[in-house]
Write a structure and sequence with these properties.
This protein has about 425 residues and is an all-alpha fold. The chain has one domain. The chain contains 18 helices and no strands. It starts with a helix and ends with a helix. The mean pLDDT is about 90.
Length: about 425
């Protein structure tokens, strides 16, 4: 356990701090190679891990590529401007609409898509509206929180969703039907709590006349209109794929490449540049980190967890769901939600209560918001903001996360 734990901690520290620009995928693969060389995992374990994560990582890449193309044609900027103008200049309404937009983007384009694409757009618009630093920070903190708390309704809304759904053979429709209520509850309760905590930093009025016309940001209006139809057809394809038990990456990545080809044909996107700049490091990150985590499983960590989870499962359903969700949340906050979801999935494999698999997803999606390093989406979000000149300190973020996350998590778990 000591050797496996040491490899895991060193790998995770390198992923979080990224010394001298070391990329997350490189750190994870280095950790995996160390685990393999030192006998913590075997080659057969590598095959098992690859079988678990390949669909999730390829689906994630597809969702990000689709988001990048839509961003290129002005889709998200148009939505952001429309959202701001729809508020009529009322700052509090704008706050609610901004979080609603974040929820929509997170649901359809994953939490990482919301962090990578929507954050810089909202930041640029807030600066254009001449909002003060406190107001900008309030909107950004709230937007960062909703990107994870709203990543529940579809299998593709979060990497943790895909991994768990595949692990427990949960179909697209079955997953959506179960998680739609928790998603709605999470969005509403998140907005309420965030508004209560941040309301003093939200201005009563905002001069929306400073914003340009929404249609002026569109690179190709015909392609923009078609994109709404395409998204509808893509969502329909997920339902069809579920009926035939096809991998979700077939539609997520396949659909993204089709839309990229269409956008390139209309000269609204550079196909090669988009594919080249897609976050391929996430593929190596997922496989590498999961191999390292599998070493913890081999060392017996999941056995300890399994004992606790079996005990919870023998109790009242509410206690079992809430307990499992908070265990997943706590582990995600201190050791990142990607390794946590896999450890918890393995520990839950023979518990025989699928509700706990859903509780694990909720805990792994919301729990990371308690610390800056809890999820890949938060790390990406902080990196994007730092590049834009906005730095949020460790304790500043953690204080905010600990204030908001536990009550929201409790309510969402109860809704499950």
């Amino acid at each position: 356990m000591l050797l496996a734990g040491t490899i895991f901690i060193i790998t995770l520290l390198l992923v979080i701090w990224q010394p001298k620009g070391l990329q997350i995928g490189t750190s994870a693969v280095a950790g995996a190679l160390a685990a393999l060389a030192l006998g913590v995992v075997s080659l057969s374990d590598v095959v098992v891990v690859t079988e678990i994560v390949w669909d999730a990582t390829l689906a994630f890449i597809g969702i990000i590529i689709l988001s990048m193309v839509l961003d290129e044609i002005g889709f998200f900027e148009w939505c952001a401007i429309k959202m701001a103008k729809f508020s009529g200049g009322n700052g509090h309404l704008m706050f609610v609409y901004a979080l609603s937009l974040g929820s929509f983007v997170s649901a359809l384009f994953a939490n990482d898509g919301a962090a990578l694409i929507l954050t810089p757009i909202l930041l640029a618009k807030m600066r254009l509206l001449k909002l003060n630093a406190k107001t900008i920070l309030a909107f950004l903190l709230a937007g960062g929180f909703i990107s994870d708390s709203a990543s529940l309704p579809f299998v593709f809304s979060n990497l943790t969703n895909i991994v768990t759904a595949n692990y427990f053979n949960i179909g697209f429709v079955e997953y959506m039907v179960t998680m739609m209520v928790p998603y709605i509850v999470s969005t509403v309760i998140s907005i309420v709590f965030l508004w209560i905590i941040l309301r003093k930093d939200i201005p009563k009025q905002v001069d929306i006349d400073l914003l340009k016309d929404a249609d002026s940001v569109l690179k190709n209006k015909m392609l923009f209109k078609f994109s709404w139809l395409f998204l509808g057809l893509l969502l329909l394809a997920y339902f069809i794929g579920d009926a035939y038990q096809l991998p979700i990456s077939l539609f997520a990545l396949g659909g993204a490449l089709v839309f990229l080809a269409i956008a390139a044909y209309f000269k609204s996107a550079n196909a090669w540049l988009t594919v080249k700049t897609a976050p391929w490091q996430v593929v190596w990150f997922s496989i590498g980190l999961y191999i390292v985590v599998y070493g913890l499983k081999n060392a017996g960590l999941t056995d300890y967890l399994s004992v606790v989870l079996h005990d919870l499962a023998s109790r009242d359903d509410t206690i079992a769901v809430v307990g499992t969700g908070f265990i997943a949340a706590f582990l995600s906050a201190i050791m990142n939600n990607m390794p946590t979801v896999m450890i918890m999935d393995i520990a839950l494999a023979d518990v025989g209560n699928q509700a706990l698999a859903y509780a694990n997803i909720i805990g792994c999606n919301l729990g990371p918001k308690m610390t800056p390093f809890g999820s890949l989406a938060t790390l990406l979000w902080l990196h994007v903001l730092a590049n834009k000149g906005v730095k949020i300190g460790f304790w500043e973020y953690t204080k905010f996360g600990l204030m908001v996350t536990p009550p929201v998590l409790l309510v969402v778990l109860l809704s499950l």
